[in-house]
Specification:
144 residues, alpha+beta, five-stranded antiparallel β-sheet, 4 helices, 5 strands, 33% helix
Length: 144
Amino acid sequence: MMEARKERMELIIESRSQNESFARAVATAFLTRVDPTMEEMEDIKTAISEAVSNSILHGYEGREGNITLTMELEGSQVMVQVRDHGIGIEDIEQARTPLFTSKPSGDRSGMGFYFMEAFMEEVIVESEPGKGTLVTMKKMIGRR
């Protein structure tokens, strides 16, 4: 049996809101090589949007910083990582609670992690206050 080939890409973007759509576009281009369904593609792009916007809004709170998007394809599994070096998350479980937001005065719904978990099969959040956050998400492609 032939071993699945692993492909990897890494993108570093500045923490600006317009880079959220750029990250989605790069992810789309990278994912086309595994021929995902439109639904699978939209699920992954939505999860990436949520993770990147969390880094911009919560991780850096409007300050400058870099966000690293890493994607790996191995067989039919897609692994996505979004890393920032922002303020970090004090209480990860609280942050993952639907409708919780650290910015209640803004237009944030507090559903970012909920959407990531709804659209991906696995979501792991690692964070250290003052050092940043790493969100790792996985999804199998091609379960048609």
